[in-house]
Write a structure and sequence with these properties.
The complex is a heterodimer of chains A (223) and B (359). Chain A is mainly alpha-helical and 223 residues long. Chain A is built from 12 helices and no strands. Chain A has one domain: MetI-like (MetI-like fold), CATH 1.10.3720. Chain B has 9 helices and 21 strands. The radius of gyration of chain B is 23 Å and the shape is globular. At the A-B interface, α7 and α8 of A face β7 of B.
Protein backbone atom coordinates (compact mmCIF):
# COMPACT_ATOMS: atom_id res chain seq x y z
CA UNK A 1 0.00 0.00 0.00
CA UNK A 2 1.19 3.50 -0.79
CA UNK A 3 1.87 5.36 2.47
CA UNK A 4 2.87 8.68 0.90
CA UNK A 5 -0.54 10.28 1.70
CA UNK A 6 0.03 9.43 5.37
CA UNK A 7 3.35 11.28 5.39
CA UNK A 8 1.87 14.23 3.58
CA UNK A 9 -0.96 14.41 6.11
CA UNK A 10 1.44 14.16 9.05
CA UNK A 11 3.67 16.86 7.58
CA UNK A 12 0.71 19.09 6.84
CA UNK A 13 -0.69 18.67 10.35
CA UNK A 14 2.69 19.33 11.99
CA UNK A 15 3.44 22.44 9.98
CA UNK A 16 -0.12 23.73 10.41
CA UNK A 17 -0.03 23.29 14.19
CA UNK A 18 3.40 24.92 14.40
CA UNK A 19 2.19 27.94 12.40
CA UNK A 20 -1.00 28.11 14.45
CA UNK A 21 0.93 28.06 17.74
CA UNK A 22 3.06 30.96 16.60
CA UNK A 23 0.15 33.01 15.26
CA UNK A 24 -2.64 31.70 17.45
CA UNK A 25 -1.02 32.16 20.87
CA UNK A 26 -0.81 35.96 20.68
CA UNK A 27 -4.26 36.04 19.09
CA UNK A 28 -5.70 33.88 21.86
CA UNK A 29 -3.99 36.08 24.47
CA UNK A 30 -5.49 39.19 22.92
CA UNK A 31 -8.92 37.58 22.79
CA UNK A 32 -8.66 36.53 26.43
CA UNK A 33 -7.14 39.70 27.92
CA UNK A 34 -7.79 42.50 25.43
CA UNK A 35 -10.34 45.22 26.03
CA UNK A 36 -10.77 46.25 22.39
CA UNK A 37 -14.28 46.65 21.03
CA UNK A 38 -13.23 44.53 18.05
CA UNK A 39 -12.68 41.54 20.27
CA UNK A 40 -16.16 40.07 19.90
CA UNK A 41 -16.07 40.40 16.13
CA UNK A 42 -12.66 38.74 15.94
CA UNK A 43 -13.92 35.98 18.23
CA UNK A 44 -16.73 35.34 15.78
CA UNK A 45 -14.39 35.31 12.79
CA UNK A 46 -12.12 32.82 14.53
CA UNK A 47 -15.13 30.55 15.11
CA UNK A 48 -16.33 30.72 11.48
CA UNK A 49 -14.52 27.56 10.29
CA UNK A 50 -16.51 25.64 12.92
CA UNK A 51 -19.79 26.34 11.16
CA UNK A 52 -18.89 27.01 7.51
CA UNK A 53 -19.09 24.11 5.06
CA UNK A 54 -15.47 23.27 4.21
CA UNK A 55 -16.33 23.80 0.56
CA UNK A 56 -17.19 27.43 1.24
CA UNK A 57 -13.83 28.00 2.92
CA UNK A 58 -12.15 26.04 0.11
CA UNK A 59 -13.93 28.08 -2.53
CA UNK A 60 -12.82 31.42 -1.10
CA UNK A 61 -9.31 30.11 -0.56
CA UNK A 62 -9.21 29.00 -4.17
CA UNK A 63 -10.08 32.53 -5.25
CA UNK A 64 -7.53 34.08 -2.86
CA UNK A 65 -4.73 31.69 -3.70
CA UNK A 66 -5.27 31.43 -7.46
CA UNK A 67 -2.41 32.73 -9.64
CA UNK A 68 -4.52 35.81 -10.43
CA UNK A 69 -5.79 36.08 -6.85
CA UNK A 70 -4.82 38.74 -4.26
CA UNK A 71 -2.58 36.31 -2.34
CA UNK A 72 -1.65 33.78 -5.00
CA UNK A 73 -0.57 36.49 -7.48
CA UNK A 74 2.12 38.13 -5.33
CA UNK A 75 3.23 34.70 -4.13
CA UNK A 76 3.71 33.59 -7.73
CA UNK A 77 5.66 36.76 -8.49
CA UNK A 78 8.00 36.29 -5.51
CA UNK A 79 8.49 32.52 -5.46
CA UNK A 80 7.72 31.54 -9.01
CA UNK A 81 5.29 28.89 -7.79
CA UNK A 82 1.53 28.75 -7.56
CA UNK A 83 -0.24 28.35 -4.23
CA UNK A 84 -3.12 26.38 -5.64
CA UNK A 85 -2.38 22.68 -6.05
CA UNK A 86 0.71 23.02 -3.82
CA UNK A 87 1.68 21.97 -0.30
CA UNK A 88 2.14 25.61 0.75
CA UNK A 89 -1.43 26.34 -0.34
CA UNK A 90 -2.61 23.40 1.77
CA UNK A 91 -0.81 24.82 4.81
CA UNK A 92 -2.46 28.23 4.41
CA UNK A 93 -5.88 26.63 3.99
CA UNK A 94 -5.36 24.30 6.94
CA UNK A 95 -4.22 27.13 9.18
CA UNK A 96 -7.55 28.89 8.61
CA UNK A 97 -9.54 25.65 8.71
CA UNK A 98 -8.06 24.55 12.07
CA UNK A 99 -7.78 28.05 13.57
CA UNK A 100 -10.61 27.71 16.12
CA UNK A 101 -9.36 24.32 17.27
CA UNK A 102 -6.09 25.89 18.40
CA UNK A 103 -7.15 29.42 19.33
CA UNK A 104 -10.24 28.60 21.36
CA UNK A 105 -8.63 26.19 23.85
CA UNK A 106 -5.75 28.64 24.30
CA UNK A 107 -8.12 31.58 24.71
CA UNK A 108 -10.14 29.71 27.32
CA UNK A 109 -7.00 28.61 29.15
CA UNK A 110 -5.68 32.19 29.29
CA UNK A 111 -9.07 33.44 30.37
CA UNK A 112 -9.13 30.84 33.12
CA UNK A 113 -5.82 32.11 34.45
CA UNK A 114 -7.16 35.64 34.72
CA UNK A 115 -5.13 38.77 35.47
CA UNK A 116 -4.13 37.84 39.02
CA UNK A 117 -1.03 35.69 38.42
CA UNK A 118 0.24 38.38 36.04
CA UNK A 119 -0.26 41.12 38.63
CA UNK A 120 1.61 38.96 41.10
CA UNK A 121 4.46 38.49 38.64
CA UNK A 122 4.61 42.26 38.05
CA UNK A 123 4.83 42.83 41.80
CA UNK A 124 7.84 40.52 41.83
CA UNK A 125 9.59 42.50 39.12
CA UNK A 126 8.57 40.61 35.97
CA UNK A 127 7.79 42.66 32.85
CA UNK A 128 4.79 41.72 30.70
CA UNK A 129 6.60 39.43 28.28
CA UNK A 130 8.47 37.75 31.14
CA UNK A 131 5.19 37.20 33.02
CA UNK A 132 3.54 35.85 29.88
CA UNK A 133 6.32 33.36 29.19
CA UNK A 134 7.11 32.23 32.74
CA UNK A 135 3.68 32.42 34.38
CA UNK A 136 0.81 32.53 31.89
CA UNK A 137 2.13 29.91 29.44
CA UNK A 138 3.04 27.28 32.07
CA UNK A 139 -0.31 27.82 33.79
CA UNK A 140 -2.03 27.38 30.40
CA UNK A 141 -0.16 24.10 29.82
CA UNK A 142 -3.29 21.98 29.49
CA UNK A 143 -4.75 24.47 27.05
CA UNK A 144 -1.63 24.10 24.90
CA UNK A 145 -1.85 20.30 24.92
CA UNK A 146 -5.53 20.45 23.99
CA UNK A 147 -4.81 22.98 21.25
CA UNK A 148 -1.98 20.94 19.77
CA UNK A 149 -3.84 17.62 19.81
CA UNK A 150 -7.11 19.05 18.46
CA UNK A 151 -5.35 21.15 15.83
CA UNK A 152 -3.29 18.19 14.68
CA UNK A 153 -6.16 15.71 14.60
CA UNK A 154 -8.52 18.13 12.91
CA UNK A 155 -6.00 18.94 10.18
CA UNK A 156 -5.45 15.24 9.55
CA UNK A 157 -9.15 14.76 8.97
CA UNK A 158 -9.62 17.73 6.67
CA UNK A 159 -11.13 16.95 3.28
CA UNK A 160 -13.40 19.41 1.48
CA UNK A 161 -11.35 22.57 1.72
CA UNK A 162 -8.16 20.74 0.82
CA UNK A 163 -9.71 19.08 -2.18
CA UNK A 164 -10.87 22.47 -3.50
CA UNK A 165 -7.48 24.14 -3.06
CA UNK A 166 -5.05 21.28 -3.57
CA UNK A 167 -6.79 18.80 -5.75
CA UNK A 168 -5.30 15.36 -5.44
CA UNK A 169 -1.76 15.43 -6.76
CA UNK A 170 0.01 12.25 -5.64
CA UNK A 171 3.06 13.06 -3.52
CA UNK A 172 2.13 16.74 -3.28
CA UNK A 173 -1.42 17.39 -2.13
CA UNK A 174 -3.01 13.94 -1.81
CA UNK A 175 -3.58 13.62 1.94
CA UNK A 176 -4.98 10.59 3.77
CA UNK A 177 -8.56 11.80 3.66
CA UNK A 178 -8.36 12.41 -0.09
CA UNK A 179 -6.57 9.12 -0.68
CA UNK A 180 -9.43 7.31 1.07
CA UNK A 181 -11.91 9.05 -1.22
CA UNK A 182 -9.89 8.07 -4.30
CA UNK A 183 -9.60 4.44 -3.10
CA UNK A 184 -13.36 4.25 -2.71
CA UNK A 185 -13.87 5.81 -6.15
CA UNK A 186 -11.65 3.11 -7.65
CA UNK A 187 -13.38 0.44 -5.53
CA UNK A 188 -10.13 -0.38 -3.66
CA UNK A 189 -11.94 -1.01 -0.37
CA UNK A 190 -9.02 -2.79 1.28
CA UNK A 191 -6.79 0.30 1.03
CA UNK A 192 -9.69 2.56 2.07
CA UNK A 193 -10.26 0.35 5.11
CA UNK A 194 -6.62 0.43 6.14
CA UNK A 195 -6.34 4.24 5.97
CA UNK A 196 -9.77 4.83 7.52
CA UNK A 197 -9.09 2.51 10.42
CA UNK A 198 -5.74 4.24 10.96
CA UNK A 199 -7.36 7.68 11.13
CA UNK A 200 -10.14 6.37 13.35
CA UNK A 201 -7.73 4.85 15.85
CA UNK A 202 -5.47 7.89 15.82
CA UNK A 203 -8.35 10.29 16.42
CA UNK A 204 -9.71 8.18 19.24
CA UNK A 205 -6.33 7.94 20.96
CA UNK A 206 -5.79 11.68 20.61
CA UNK A 207 -9.16 12.53 22.14
CA UNK A 208 -8.70 9.93 24.86
CA UNK A 209 -5.39 11.57 25.73
CA UNK A 210 -7.01 15.01 26.07
CA UNK A 211 -9.93 13.79 28.13
CA UNK A 212 -7.61 11.84 30.42
CA UNK A 213 -5.36 14.85 30.83
CA UNK A 214 -8.23 17.17 31.57
CA UNK A 215 -9.56 14.78 34.17
CA UNK A 216 -12.98 14.18 32.63
CA UNK A 217 -13.49 17.88 32.04
CA UNK A 218 -14.64 18.68 28.53
CA UNK A 219 -12.09 20.52 26.45
CA UNK A 220 -12.85 24.14 25.72
CA UNK A 221 -14.71 23.70 22.46
CA UNK A 222 -17.93 22.01 21.58
CA UNK A 223 -16.91 18.41 21.26
CA UNK B 1 19.73 50.72 55.13
CA UNK B 2 17.51 53.77 54.87
CA UNK B 3 14.27 53.85 52.97
CA UNK B 4 12.97 56.88 51.10
CA UNK B 5 9.52 58.17 51.98
CA UNK B 6 6.60 57.41 49.73
CA UNK B 7 4.38 60.40 49.02
CA UNK B 8 1.12 60.16 47.16
CA UNK B 9 -1.88 62.20 46.18
CA UNK B 10 -4.34 60.05 44.28
CA UNK B 11 -7.87 59.88 43.02
CA UNK B 12 -9.75 57.03 41.44
CA UNK B 13 -13.30 57.28 40.14
CA UNK B 14 -15.56 54.33 39.66
CA UNK B 15 -19.33 54.16 39.35
CA UNK B 16 -20.58 54.70 42.89
CA UNK B 17 -17.12 55.00 44.39
CA UNK B 18 -14.51 57.71 44.64
CA UNK B 19 -11.09 57.21 46.19
CA UNK B 20 -9.27 60.31 47.33
CA UNK B 21 -6.06 59.78 49.27
CA UNK B 22 -2.98 61.84 50.00
CA UNK B 23 -0.33 61.01 52.55
CA UNK B 24 3.33 60.45 53.16
CA UNK B 25 4.32 56.99 54.27
CA UNK B 26 6.67 57.19 57.25
CA UNK B 27 9.18 54.55 58.22
CA UNK B 28 8.10 51.63 60.33
CA UNK B 29 4.69 50.04 60.06
CA UNK B 30 1.63 52.01 59.03
CA UNK B 31 -1.79 50.42 59.40
CA UNK B 32 -4.41 51.29 56.80
CA UNK B 33 -7.60 50.91 58.78
CA UNK B 34 -11.23 51.13 57.80
CA UNK B 35 -14.41 49.13 57.25
CA UNK B 36 -14.72 46.61 54.42
CA UNK B 37 -15.27 48.24 51.06
CA UNK B 38 -13.83 51.64 52.03
CA UNK B 39 -11.09 51.37 49.40
CA UNK B 40 -8.12 50.09 51.38
CA UNK B 41 -7.19 47.38 48.90
CA UNK B 42 -7.83 49.75 45.99
CA UNK B 43 -5.40 52.25 47.50
CA UNK B 44 -2.73 49.54 47.74
CA UNK B 45 -3.37 48.59 44.12
CA UNK B 46 -3.06 52.24 43.07
CA UNK B 47 0.27 52.58 44.86
CA UNK B 48 1.49 49.38 43.23
CA UNK B 49 0.48 50.63 39.77
CA UNK B 50 -2.17 47.97 39.19
CA UNK B 51 -5.06 50.42 38.67
CA UNK B 52 -4.71 52.07 35.26
CA UNK B 53 -7.63 54.43 36.00
CA UNK B 54 -5.87 55.91 39.04
CA UNK B 55 -5.00 59.60 38.65
CA UNK B 56 -2.56 61.73 40.59
CA UNK B 57 1.01 61.60 41.80
CA UNK B 58 3.19 59.08 43.57
CA UNK B 59 6.77 59.88 44.45
CA UNK B 60 9.26 57.56 46.11
CA UNK B 61 12.29 59.56 47.25
CA UNK B 62 13.28 61.41 44.10
CA UNK B 63 11.77 58.82 41.77
CA UNK B 64 8.39 59.61 40.23
CA UNK B 65 6.18 56.55 40.09
CA UNK B 66 3.23 58.44 38.73
CA UNK B 67 2.58 62.00 37.67
CA UNK B 68 2.14 64.26 34.68
CA UNK B 69 5.49 62.97 33.35
CA UNK B 70 3.97 59.51 32.97
CA UNK B 71 3.91 56.42 35.06
CA UNK B 72 6.41 53.76 35.96
CA UNK B 73 5.10 50.26 35.17
CA UNK B 74 4.39 48.13 38.26
CA UNK B 75 7.37 45.83 37.76
CA UNK B 76 9.80 48.76 37.90
CA UNK B 77 8.51 50.23 41.16
CA UNK B 78 10.40 49.23 44.29
CA UNK B 79 7.17 48.01 45.78
CA UNK B 80 5.97 44.62 46.92
CA UNK B 81 2.35 43.66 47.37
CA UNK B 82 1.33 40.58 49.32
CA UNK B 83 -2.23 39.83 48.28
CA UNK B 84 -4.80 38.66 50.77
CA UNK B 85 -5.04 35.28 49.01
CA UNK B 86 -1.19 35.00 48.87
CA UNK B 87 -1.25 34.11 45.14
CA UNK B 88 1.69 31.73 45.20
CA UNK B 89 2.32 30.42 41.69
CA UNK B 90 0.69 26.97 41.68
CA UNK B 91 3.01 25.62 38.98
CA UNK B 92 6.10 26.28 41.12
CA UNK B 93 7.25 24.85 44.43
CA UNK B 94 7.73 27.13 47.42
CA UNK B 95 11.44 27.26 46.62
CA UNK B 96 10.80 28.12 42.97
CA UNK B 97 8.36 30.82 44.05
CA UNK B 98 11.20 32.37 46.06
CA UNK B 99 13.61 31.90 43.12
CA UNK B 100 11.20 33.71 40.82
CA UNK B 101 11.33 36.80 43.02
CA UNK B 102 15.06 36.64 43.70
CA UNK B 103 15.97 36.43 40.01
CA UNK B 104 14.01 39.63 39.36
CA UNK B 105 15.25 41.53 42.39
CA UNK B 106 15.07 45.32 41.90
CA UNK B 107 17.93 46.43 44.09
CA UNK B 108 19.57 45.32 47.24
CA UNK B 109 17.36 43.60 49.70
CA UNK B 110 17.48 40.91 52.32
CA UNK B 111 19.57 37.84 51.58
CA UNK B 112 18.01 34.53 50.78
CA UNK B 113 19.25 32.77 53.91
CA UNK B 114 18.12 35.70 56.04
CA UNK B 115 14.58 35.51 54.67
CA UNK B 116 14.33 31.74 54.80
CA UNK B 117 15.56 31.58 58.39
CA UNK B 118 13.78 34.73 59.52
CA UNK B 119 10.41 33.46 58.33
CA UNK B 120 11.02 29.80 59.12
CA UNK B 121 10.64 28.64 55.53
CA UNK B 122 13.36 26.00 55.35
CA UNK B 123 11.04 23.06 55.97
CA UNK B 124 8.52 24.32 53.42
CA UNK B 125 10.85 24.82 50.45
CA UNK B 126 10.11 21.59 48.60
CA UNK B 127 6.36 21.76 49.11
CA UNK B 128 3.91 22.71 46.44
CA UNK B 129 1.72 25.71 47.31
CA UNK B 130 -1.36 23.46 47.33
CA UNK B 131 0.15 21.49 50.23
CA UNK B 132 0.77 24.55 52.42
CA UNK B 133 -1.55 25.69 55.19
CA UNK B 134 -2.87 29.27 55.29
CA UNK B 135 -0.17 30.47 57.66
CA UNK B 136 2.58 28.71 55.72
CA UNK B 137 1.37 30.22 52.45
CA UNK B 138 1.38 33.67 54.06
CA UNK B 139 4.96 33.18 55.23
CA UNK B 140 6.14 32.00 51.80
CA UNK B 141 4.32 34.89 50.10
CA UNK B 142 5.93 37.33 52.54
CA UNK B 143 9.37 35.85 51.93
CA UNK B 144 8.83 35.93 48.18
CA UNK B 145 7.83 39.60 48.32
CA UNK B 146 10.89 40.48 50.43
CA UNK B 147 13.27 38.64 48.09
CA UNK B 148 12.12 40.81 45.18
CA UNK B 149 13.90 43.66 46.99
CA UNK B 150 11.08 46.16 47.64
CA UNK B 151 11.62 49.37 49.61
CA UNK B 152 7.89 49.58 50.33
CA UNK B 153 5.91 46.48 51.18
CA UNK B 154 2.13 46.58 50.94
CA UNK B 155 0.30 43.85 52.85
CA UNK B 156 -3.39 43.24 52.27
CA UNK B 157 -4.88 41.77 55.42
CA UNK B 158 -1.95 39.45 56.07
CA UNK B 159 -3.59 38.01 59.18
CA UNK B 160 -7.13 37.44 58.01
CA UNK B 161 -8.01 33.82 57.49
CA UNK B 162 -5.48 32.71 60.08
CA UNK B 163 -6.42 31.35 63.49
CA UNK B 164 -5.16 33.05 66.64
CA UNK B 165 -2.19 30.71 66.99
CA UNK B 166 -0.99 31.38 63.42
CA UNK B 167 -1.58 35.10 63.86
CA UNK B 168 0.67 35.22 66.87
CA UNK B 169 3.24 33.28 64.83
CA UNK B 170 3.26 35.79 61.95
CA UNK B 171 2.80 38.97 63.98
CA UNK B 172 6.38 39.08 65.38
CA UNK B 173 7.77 38.33 61.92
CA UNK B 174 5.90 41.29 60.47
CA UNK B 175 6.90 43.58 63.32
CA UNK B 176 10.55 42.77 62.75
CA UNK B 177 10.54 43.53 58.99
CA UNK B 178 11.16 47.32 59.01
CA UNK B 179 14.13 47.07 61.33
CA UNK B 180 15.60 43.90 59.94
CA UNK B 181 15.16 44.49 56.21
CA UNK B 182 14.93 48.29 55.97
CA UNK B 183 11.50 48.15 54.36
CA UNK B 184 8.48 50.38 55.02
CA UNK B 185 5.25 48.53 55.61
CA UNK B 186 1.70 49.56 54.82
CA UNK B 187 -0.68 46.98 56.25
CA UNK B 188 -4.37 46.85 55.43
CA UNK B 189 -6.55 45.70 58.29
CA UNK B 190 -9.99 46.14 59.74
CA UNK B 191 -9.18 44.65 63.11
CA UNK B 192 -8.26 47.01 65.95
CA UNK B 193 -6.12 44.50 67.76
CA UNK B 194 -3.96 44.05 64.66
CA UNK B 195 -3.37 47.78 64.46
CA UNK B 196 -2.50 47.94 68.13
CA UNK B 197 -0.06 45.09 68.18
CA UNK B 198 1.53 45.78 64.79
CA UNK B 199 1.65 49.41 63.74
CA UNK B 200 3.28 52.56 65.04
CA UNK B 201 1.20 54.79 62.81
CA UNK B 202 -2.21 54.50 61.26
CA UNK B 203 -4.26 55.89 58.41
CA UNK B 204 -7.98 55.97 59.01
CA UNK B 205 -10.09 55.48 55.93
CA UNK B 206 -13.82 55.62 55.28
CA UNK B 207 -15.83 55.54 52.05
CA UNK B 208 -12.80 56.16 49.88
CA UNK B 209 -11.51 59.12 51.93
CA UNK B 210 -8.56 59.40 54.27
CA UNK B 211 -10.07 60.62 57.55
CA UNK B 212 -6.80 61.21 59.32
CA UNK B 213 -3.31 59.86 59.90
CA UNK B 214 -1.48 59.85 63.21
CA UNK B 215 0.55 57.72 65.58
CA UNK B 216 -1.52 54.78 66.77
CA UNK B 217 -1.42 55.75 70.45
CA UNK B 218 -2.63 59.26 69.62
CA UNK B 219 -5.51 58.10 67.47
CA UNK B 220 -6.78 55.47 69.85
CA UNK B 221 -6.73 57.97 72.71
CA UNK B 222 -8.76 60.62 70.85
CA UNK B 223 -12.52 60.35 71.49
CA UNK B 224 -13.32 61.88 68.08
CA UNK B 225 -12.06 58.77 66.34
CA UNK B 226 -13.56 56.12 68.58
CA UNK B 227 -16.63 55.74 66.35
CA UNK B 228 -14.38 55.09 63.33
CA UNK B 229 -12.40 52.57 65.29
CA UNK B 230 -15.56 50.83 66.47
CA UNK B 231 -14.57 51.43 70.07
CA UNK B 232 -17.42 51.58 72.57
CA UNK B 233 -15.20 51.70 75.62
CA UNK B 234 -12.99 54.81 76.04
CA UNK B 235 -9.37 53.81 76.41
CA UNK B 236 -5.90 55.24 76.16
CA UNK B 237 -2.73 53.73 74.77
CA UNK B 238 0.55 54.21 76.54
CA UNK B 239 3.76 53.24 74.82
CA UNK B 240 6.37 52.17 77.34
CA UNK B 241 9.74 50.49 77.78
CA UNK B 242 10.87 47.67 80.00
CA UNK B 243 13.12 48.99 82.78
CA UNK B 244 13.27 46.13 85.26
CA UNK B 245 12.11 42.59 85.79
CA UNK B 246 11.23 40.89 89.04
CA UNK B 247 11.63 37.20 88.40
CA UNK B 248 10.40 36.15 91.84
CA UNK B 249 6.93 37.56 91.20
CA UNK B 250 6.99 37.37 87.40
CA UNK B 251 6.44 41.11 87.14
CA UNK B 252 7.96 43.64 84.77
CA UNK B 253 8.38 47.34 85.50
CA UNK B 254 7.70 49.67 82.56
CA UNK B 255 8.51 53.34 82.13
CA UNK B 256 5.65 55.25 80.47
CA UNK B 257 4.57 58.87 80.12
CA UNK B 258 2.25 58.21 83.05
CA UNK B 259 5.05 56.98 85.29
CA UNK B 260 6.33 53.55 86.27
CA UNK B 261 3.91 50.67 86.04
CA UNK B 262 4.18 47.02 86.95
CA UNK B 263 2.59 44.35 84.76
CA UNK B 264 2.72 40.59 84.43
CA UNK B 265 3.05 38.40 81.37
CA UNK B 266 6.01 40.06 79.66
CA UNK B 267 9.26 38.20 79.11
CA UNK B 268 10.98 40.90 77.04
CA UNK B 269 14.35 42.21 78.16
CA UNK B 270 15.33 45.64 79.34
CA UNK B 271 14.61 48.45 76.89
CA UNK B 272 12.01 46.50 74.87
CA UNK B 273 9.09 48.66 73.73
CA UNK B 274 5.68 47.64 75.04
CA UNK B 275 2.24 49.01 74.18
CA UNK B 276 -0.25 49.24 77.06
CA UNK B 277 -3.95 49.96 76.91
CA UNK B 278 -5.95 51.26 79.85
CA UNK B 279 -9.70 51.07 79.31
CA UNK B 280 -12.18 53.17 81.27
CA UNK B 281 -13.52 50.08 83.05
CA UNK B 282 -10.02 49.28 84.34
CA UNK B 283 -9.71 52.57 86.21
CA UNK B 284 -10.98 53.07 89.76
CA UNK B 285 -10.84 56.42 91.57
CA UNK B 286 -9.89 56.85 95.19
CA UNK B 287 -9.62 59.99 97.34
CA UNK B 288 -6.86 58.58 99.56
CA UNK B 289 -3.66 56.96 98.29
CA UNK B 290 -4.75 53.32 98.15
CA UNK B 291 -2.93 51.21 100.73
CA UNK B 292 -4.32 47.72 100.68
CA UNK B 293 -5.73 46.67 97.29
CA UNK B 294 -5.01 43.94 94.80
CA UNK B 295 -4.44 46.47 92.02
CA UNK B 296 -0.69 46.81 91.45
CA UNK B 297 -0.68 50.27 89.98
CA UNK B 298 -1.96 53.54 91.32
CA UNK B 299 -1.20 56.99 89.97
CA UNK B 300 -1.90 60.51 91.17
CA UNK B 301 -4.34 62.15 88.74
CA UNK B 302 -6.20 65.42 88.23
CA UNK B 303 -9.75 65.70 86.90
CA UNK B 304 -9.87 67.53 83.55
CA UNK B 305 -13.40 67.19 82.24
CA UNK B 306 -16.72 65.66 83.23
CA UNK B 307 -19.31 64.72 80.63
CA UNK B 308 -22.62 62.97 81.04
CA UNK B 309 -22.41 59.82 79.02
CA UNK B 310 -25.85 58.35 79.67
CA UNK B 311 -28.47 58.35 82.42
CA UNK B 312 -26.63 58.38 85.75
CA UNK B 313 -23.17 57.79 84.24
CA UNK B 314 -20.45 60.39 83.80
CA UNK B 315 -17.34 60.06 81.67
CA UNK B 316 -14.31 61.59 83.37
CA UNK B 317 -11.08 62.59 81.70
CA UNK B 318 -8.08 62.58 83.99
CA UNK B 319 -4.63 64.04 83.52
CA UNK B 320 -1.72 61.89 84.64
CA UNK B 321 1.41 63.98 85.07
CA UNK B 322 1.91 66.40 82.19
CA UNK B 323 1.77 64.14 79.19
CA UNK B 324 -0.66 61.30 79.79
CA UNK B 325 -4.41 61.08 80.17
CA UNK B 326 -6.95 58.52 81.32
CA UNK B 327 -10.68 57.93 80.96
CA UNK B 328 -13.03 56.41 83.44
CA UNK B 329 -16.77 56.09 84.04
CA UNK B 330 -18.30 56.96 87.36
CA UNK B 331 -21.89 57.19 88.53
CA UNK B 332 -23.45 60.55 89.22
CA UNK B 333 -23.61 59.53 92.83
CA UNK B 334 -19.81 59.04 92.91
CA UNK B 335 -19.32 62.44 91.31
CA UNK B 336 -21.18 63.88 94.27
CA UNK B 337 -19.56 61.66 96.92
CA UNK B 338 -16.00 62.33 95.69
CA UNK B 339 -16.87 65.96 94.85
CA UNK B 340 -15.44 65.49 91.35
CA UNK B 341 -14.87 68.71 89.45
CA UNK B 342 -12.20 69.95 87.07
CA UNK B 343 -8.90 70.45 88.90
CA UNK B 344 -9.74 68.01 91.71
CA UNK B 345 -6.73 65.84 92.62
CA UNK B 346 -7.12 62.19 93.56
CA UNK B 347 -5.70 58.73 92.90
CA UNK B 348 -6.46 56.26 90.13
CA UNK B 349 -6.05 52.54 90.49
CA UNK B 350 -5.47 51.07 87.08
CA UNK B 351 -5.15 47.69 85.46
CA UNK B 352 -3.21 48.13 82.17
CA UNK B 353 -3.55 45.55 79.45
CA UNK B 354 -0.41 44.53 77.56
CA UNK B 355 -1.10 44.77 73.83
CA UNK B 356 2.17 44.06 72.19
CA UNK B 357 5.81 43.55 72.82
CA UNK B 358 8.42 44.21 70.20
CA UNK B 359 11.25 41.81 70.84
Amino acid sequence: MNLTPVWISLQLASVTVAVLLVLGTPLAWWLAMGRSRWRVAVDAVVALPLVLPPTVLGFYMLILLAPQGPVGGPWLAVTGETLTFSFAGLVITSVLYSLPFVVQPLRDAFRGIGPRPLETAAMLGANRLDAFLTVACPLAGRGFVTAIVLGFAHTLGEFGAILMVGGSLPGETRTVAIAIYEHVETLDYAAAHALSAGLLVFSFVALLAIYTLNGRRRPGIGL
Amino acid sequence: MTASPLEFDLTLERPGFRLRAADRLESGITALFGPSGCGKTTLLRCLAGLEPACQGRIRHGDQHWQGPEGRLPPHRRAVGLVFQDTRLFPHLSARENLDFAERRRRGDGPGRAEVIDGLGLRALLDQSPAALSGGESQRVALGRALLAGPRILLLDEPLSGLDAARQSEIMPLLRAIPERFGVRLLVVTHACHEVLSLANRMILMQAGQLITQAPVSELFSAPDYWPFLGLTEPAVLWPGRVVARDNDWGLTTLATDAGRLRVSGISAGSGAPVMLRVSARDVVLSLEPPMATSMLNSLPVRVETLETEREGVVRVRLAVGHRAALWTHVTRQSVAALRLEPGRRLHALIRPEVLGVNH
